[in-house]
Amino acid sequence: MLYKFRTLDNFEFVLDIIVNKRLYAATFDAMNDPMEGFYTYGNDIPIESLAALEEYKSSLRFCSLSISNNNPLMWAHYTNGNRGIAIGLEIEGEFDTRTVNYESQSNLIASVSSSIERAKNVLSCKASYWHYEEEIRVFAQTGNFIPVRVKEIIFGEKADESQKALLKAIVQAIDPSIQLKDWTEDMVYCHVTPVYDLNVRQEIHDV
């Protein structure tokens, strides 16, 4: 299962995923990384191939998902400080799905003769400091949307109770097979590092 993190501020965008069973596929210039789409190349890459690559790079559409649903940085950055949701879903149909390679830049390889393939390679490479996203990119074939099947919705710890209740009611009416999960103590992802009792540590220090 893959996950899409969303805020509840733009409620209609969340409903579009659930009701219409689709994800919006954007071009690379809509991404939040200003270094998106950079690459290096050698003299063995023809100029005409670079021109074709640039055209594909600007026109290809894809959606960004994560294999993880419990990374604190994802919840902080993409759900308005844990106030949104993580949507667990499956892609419907055959699509070109790529695991993002976290390098500084993509280096064009002459043996990759297809310009569209080179463009996809470039768009599947990000700087190493984004590695926490554990991102999967799904490239659209035609149009602006990718069909999906929603399997579960996880509500953030600080999700607004009225928005949560409304979304639950809508989901139950549309597709009761979708699992709705409230935030619980078992989902406290921040405990990936040791949590100490400061009073105990002080006692040890005093001894």
Structure description:
It is a single chain. This protein is an alpha/beta fold and 207 residues long. Helices cover 29% and strands 25% of the residues. It has helices spanning 11-20, 47-59, 72-78, 115-122, 161-174, 198-206; strands at residues 2-6, 22-24, 39-40, 62-66, 85-91, 96-99, 101-102, 106-107, 125-126, 135-139, 145-155, 179-181. Strands 1, 2, 5, 11 and 12 form a five-stranded mixed beta sheet that branches. The chain is elongated, with a radius of gyration of 21 Å.
Please report the number of helical segments.
6
Output the radius of gyration: 21 Å
For the report, how would you describe the main beta sheet? 5 strands, mixed
Count of individual beta strands: 12
Could you write a compact summary of the structure shown?
The protein is α/β, with parallel strands linked by helices.
Main attributes of the structure:
5-stranded mixed β-sheet; alpha/beta; 12 strands; elongated; 3-stranded antiparallel β-sheet; 207 residues; 6 helices
Secondary-structure topology with pairs:
Layout: E1 2-6, H1 11-20, E2 22-24, E3 39-40, H2 47-59, E4 62-66, H3 72-78, E5 85-91, E6 96-99, E7 101-102, E8 106-107, H4 115-122, E9 125-126, E10 135-139, E11 145-155, H5 161-174, E12 179-181, H6 198-206
Parallel strand pairs: 3-8, 7-9, 11-12
Antiparallel strand pairs: 1-5, 2-11, 4-10, 5-11, 6-10
